[in-house]
Write a structure and sequence with these properties.
8-stranded antiparallel β-sheet; 15 strands; 4-stranded antiparallel β-sheet
Length: about 425
Amino acid sequence: MRVAFSDPEGKRLWRMIPYGGPLALFLFACAGPLEGAESALTAVLAVALFHLVGVMPIRQVSARAAELTLKPGVIEVSGAGTRSQRIEARSIVGGTTARTKSGVLFTLSHANRDQPLTIEVATDADADAVRQALGIGHGGFGQVSWRTMPSSSAKAGFWGRLLTFAMGVVIAGTGFFGSHTAAAIVGVLLGQFALITMVLSLVGYVGRDAPPNIVMAAEGLRLNTKLGWFSVPYDHVLGIETIETTLRFKVPPPYGYVDVETSASLIGTGLGSDERKALVTQIMSAADRARGLGTSKNDVTGRVDVLRRNGEAPRVWLARLDMAGQMLESETSGYRGSTIDSEDLWTVLEDPEADADLRAAAARVLRHSQKPATRTRIDAAVAAVRNLSTHRRLRIAIRDDIENASEELAMLDAQEQISPDARRMQQR
């Protein structure tokens, strides 16, 4: 599947690679053939270059074409250079979608990324395949957030690294192109300041990240402004425009608008043009859905409600589901004994927004089908489940041994009834 893919931050390992050059130069200065002043000046230059790499914004500023391979609970991105990666459904903590002129845009919050990932597919069929692989429902899930401003520690680190680089270049340049004596004098004069700038540089690496400035959640939009947090229901977002370095959200009176500051991506944060476009597209799409302009969800849960557990003992419930599955399978022999349609069961099973017990019930009934692809499709749906409790419930429901399945389901019920405090004590 050919897609447009963007991962602004990229994997941490790739971001460390550019530091290899300055580190190699520093080791050469310390252990190589250089001696005396030449060795010291080379080491100073290596330190300066190390800080220069820290200043450079190693970010993917625009989306690029990539190949997407879908597997149960996993998508593999290839052909995207250093952004090629494997993304597991459980690593995605928030997701939302929007329709664009060229297809469907996914914006995903990854547990190990500071900024969201974006994937744009061309067709609805491709979009459904991505949703199924990652377990994303019709209304999205979790929270998707953007950081539009760097933290104070990031700013301090940026200027600390920049000034350290400048002083290192001055000292090394004086020694290489002037005299070693002059370099020594300059080094003594600048050394006291270099110590301060290097501390600031370290603060930038170990300091806290800035909180997100724009958060898309199920209940609405949350904006971090100069005056504090501002909550806006999606149907109150009337438009978004850019005014210099500010994103202005138009809202009804008495406010009229809400401004959120943004910065360029120079300090390793902020929004690139493609990120800004994706942000606006997703928020305005959510606003349209809130006003009833989006595609409505095909909700079939009412047609399979008879399968709900409704307080039954695990053994009784599973036995009832097995009977429903046998009746459904008997339809292939011409006997109509079931009022449940298999397509409705698949819809519920593969719907991340459906009730966990109802999804488990659908899986238990469908496992009786003799069609060759049934088990593979069930396993794929289960693999895309992010919630551990729901994942365990589905795994238990599709076990062949009803006695063991009943015991495990009873244990899971008991565990979920334990209070959060007692559960923490048990984990300790």
